[in-house]
Amino acid sequence: MAILKIARMGHPVLRRPAEPVETPIPAVVKQLATDMIETMLDAPGVGLAAPQVHVGWRVIVFRVPADRSTGQPGDTVVEPQVLINPEIEPLSDEMALGWEGCLSIPGLRGAVPRWTRIRYRGLGLDGQPVEREATGFHARVIQHEVDHLDAVLYLDRMPDMRLLTFTEEMKYFGTGFGAAPPPGEGRRATDPQP
Ligand code: NI
User: How far does residue 52's CA lie from ligand 1's centre (Å)?
Assistant: First the structure.
């Protein structure tokens, strides 16, 4: 087990698309995924993608903690887990704005539109196929992490840069700074970041 160094925005590894992992899953990838979970929990964060720890493989780790879960179907608590070679399919046209941070962009939060309902597929740490439907925060964190595999950062998806803020300022001023914040999302601003 090891805590890995996290790349910050500006490091080119975050702007290179990641490569699929071969099967059967090599032991070195399993070790990486285990270290990524430890790194995510240490940060603390709710998600991490391999390029964020300087590795160009399509591996993500994530979790849905109790304080982010709505308890609705597809958005229940998810313990820390690994998804290898993930793929996403939106299940409706609906998108919603929500606050996101990123361990590679420390100290900032921005409002990002994401699909509200998705199906995702991939392989678990044991090499078995995983297929799930996700909504709410669960759907959001998966989309954020898979974007990292495609060299996309959440800033790239923000339609309104007025909704970019330092986390510390949100503590004092909430989400109101001229533009309408996403309803009910303000108190999420200082939560752990993907
Ligand atoms: Ni991120």
Answer: 8
- How much distance in Å is there from the Cα of 38 to the middle of ligand 1? 16
183 domain-assigned = no
Domain with residue 44: its CATH number is 3.90.45.10
Domain count of the fold of the chain: 1
Residue 135 lies in a domain: yes
CA distance 69 to 55: 29
* pTM for the whole structure: 0.90
Q: Whole domain around residue 55: which residue ranges?
A: 12-173
Catalytic annotation, residues? 145
In a domain, 187, yes or no: no
Evaluate whether residue 129 is within a structural domain: yes
pLDDT tens by residue, 130-141: 999 999 999 999
Which residues have beta carbons under 5 A from ligand 1 (an ion)? Answer: 102, 194
Higher pLDDT, 169 or 155: 155
Mean pLDDT across the chain, nearest whole number? 90
Q: With beta carbons less than 8 A apart as the criterion, state whether 122 and 86 touch.
A: yes
